[in-house]
Amino acid sequence: LSVPTDAGAALAALRRACGAAPLLTGVDEVAPYLSDHRHLYRGQALGVALPDTVAQLSEILAWCNARGVGVVPQGGNTSYCGGATPDESGTQLVIGLARMNRIRAIDAANLSMTVEAGCLLASVQQAAAEAGCYFPLELGSAGSCQIGGNLSTNAGGLNVLRFGMARDLTLGIEAVLPDGRVFQRLRALRKDNTGYDLKALLIGAEGTLGIITAATLKLWPAIRTTATAFLAVPDVSAAIAVLAQLRGAAGERLNSFELLPRAAIELACRHIPGTRAPLGLSNEWYVLCELSSFVDEPLDELLQQALTRAISTGQVLDATLAANEGQRLAFWALREGIPTAQRRAGLGVKHDISVPVSALPAFVAEASAWVRRAVPDGTLVAYGHAGDGNLHFNVNWLDGADAQHVATQEPVIRRAIHDLVAAHGGSISAEHGIGQLKVDELRRYTSAVELGTMRAIKRALDPKGIMNPGKIFTPS
Amino acid sequence: LSVPTDAGAALAALRRACGAAPLLTGVDEVAPYLSDHRHLYRGQALGVALPDTVAQLSEILAWCNARGVGVVPQGGNTSYCGGATPDESGTQLVIGLARMNRIRAIDAANLSMTVEAGCLLASVQQAAAEAGCYFPLELGSAGSCQIGGNLSTNAGGLNVLRFGMARDLTLGIEAVLPDGRVFQRLRALRKDNTGYDLKALLIGAEGTLGIITAATLKLWPAIRTTATAFLAVPDVSAAIAVLAQLRGAAGERLNSFELLPRAAIELACRHIPGTRAPLGLSNEWYVLCELSSFVDEPLDELLQQALTRAISTGQVLDATLAANEGQRLAFWALREGIPTAQRRAGLGVKHDISVPVSALPAFVAEASAWVRRAVPDGTLVAYGHAGDGNLHFNVNWLDGADAQHVATQEPVIRRAIHDLVAAHGGSISAEHGIGQLKVDELRRYTSAVELGTMRAIKRALDPKGIMNPGKIFTPS
Description:
Structural class of chain A: alpha+beta
Number of helices of chain A: 16
Oligomer: homodimer
């Protein structure tokens, strides 16, 4: 652990500020907090504080603010953008939220629950289920990510089509502001027009305006029935037409609509043991879709009928319904295995983009053509949440490529893909956020008015710039 | 029109700044803009500018900002809180948005549309319907309120239970900032995590941070079927139990759940010609509920079955389903006639409160007991959107009362009701906002941390304090 020369005194003072909260400083105990899970970044830190209560966190932030010590909040450390990794200066304090992990309240009659930031997403889902309710945020990392991180990054995932992003699922938050004051607004209300929506501002701010310590979340009744299908479709246009038809046939019951190219399924089958392609690999495009309902109703029948109609018009080439929960889980294991399969397959470059659903066919056609032309040794693996316009538009080198080659190609590919995204009115970060990774991209694709407004808010709420420095934007 | 003594020169300069945009200054043409529709406030103004384009509005705001001229944005002038009425100084400029009323784009495949601020809500609904889609914001004033005002106040209304508030219905906005710069982010995206959610901040800011000029809105597929019922229930607890049962039986198809006390129905029947009580007036509490679906399905049957079960357990005493669209509209006319009936019935005091749905029975019991005890000559008419916890908790003097008596009672009643709301974790403004009317109430029921944070943002984005001065909070 490399720390500045006057670190001894600083550490002693910090330890006093932490009070009863553990402060990790040993090389081994600090190490897991210093790198992101994609290993894109490796930082240093003054230490890692692990507060247990809002009062402890408040003391720590007040201390850091008074001394201008940078603070890096960290939940489950699952950021794809280095959003929770400290810089290399060794002067920043990492604050882990894991110990603040209480379920404070569940109100089934109001369909709401209040949880602390350090609760695992899976624990939140589980607690909701035990109360006969459903919390719809669903990510591959549910077992390791924390709800505080989910909110700080406005997490998306598999059910956005129906339920929205993390911000849409939140009724209230509690947060410690940079100077240690506690913002508490854990009202469990669906309607509350009393001033600015500070909650919406703090959610998705990636820890640059304060640290979310608890949230009151919306719940839904428990899911009673599910119907899941795997489809082969002729092209992306047909997939989008099928999306509209399923909406027309099932309304809000459609909760997931994932687009999968053959390349993604091949990768998963090759690298994830036990995975198989439900409809073979003779088509270019596949869809995994799911209906669910809070009511007992014949969803399989409804889905079957809609797909039969789509097959008769040629918009679906082939389809198979999950006959039981085992098959359903197998479909989803295939889908959720893709990121791991890509990692195992070798080097690649990732993009987390969205465009209007209506623009997906043209965007995919243009971007794919560019990749074929400009990256002849790469394989396009563009898959994801097409139902809400979000694709993970990745290029992989499956035949091996040295890191230097990929590093040279990456900025060229990123520029081309993101320029096409912008031309289609899309976003260069649909759900992963900005973190450290996309600071330059955000600056390139965001107007001066908008960036200036964000910076004005940052200066107003964090005048000393201690909160997660270097994330979202570099200090002005 | 009373204007400051150097008004001649100021007006001439303002007229130049307005360019091609009309600037009204005549007493008669300005008069409708100087008072709110409840006639709680009457102000004066330098004039009323009616820009037609974003560029014109930008010029006007830049001019006002340079000179520190206060600006009062006004849409359909339907605020319940004086949010769009200028003060009495005669130094403020009212800016009417009515001429910026284009439907810019509709994308049915993406379920989105982009509209300008001055579009009537009814026009937005209509344009969506003509494209085979549905825009779910629904208010009694749909024919006169404008979407820009709906967004600036984060309007609620009859469908919040299912679709959320105006903020939840918005994908993107365009706004002119106080210094005339244009913030444009009309992306039609369901997922976009690129920095702070400035959209959510400007929505509901009641014109204190800038003027919303256009918005990209979420659409849904057209509604295909509806089922509407009028119920008699023994008490508020039973109503809330029925709400949960309907959710369990109908899931998201439940879009409205309005609680109506006998007093409200009596008032409507007495003062709104052609109105009748569907189930008579022998019970204390009634409910108007509606299911709707984007799919052809037997909703009447579903609702009938659910109500039959609720009748068998005694939670519903009596029920009648609308047999046709005429009966359905009659049920809604009764509901929507209540505010007018109250006005015709004489003086009263209004509250727009919300509490968690689970707290409604206790809150109504306690607040009603207080009114009976403390206001023996008043009649409680507490009705509204119980499905989302929002009641219009009003006290009316039906036997006539002089204005002086009501004015003396009003602050006492407001204090008692709002204190009870706060004790139940509720909001003193569920959907109407703060405007001028509730500035003191907001200060009383909001923490110093929260108010201080709002003020810091106000100062950062509107350093000269020109935007809708005196609304939400008094200048610091």
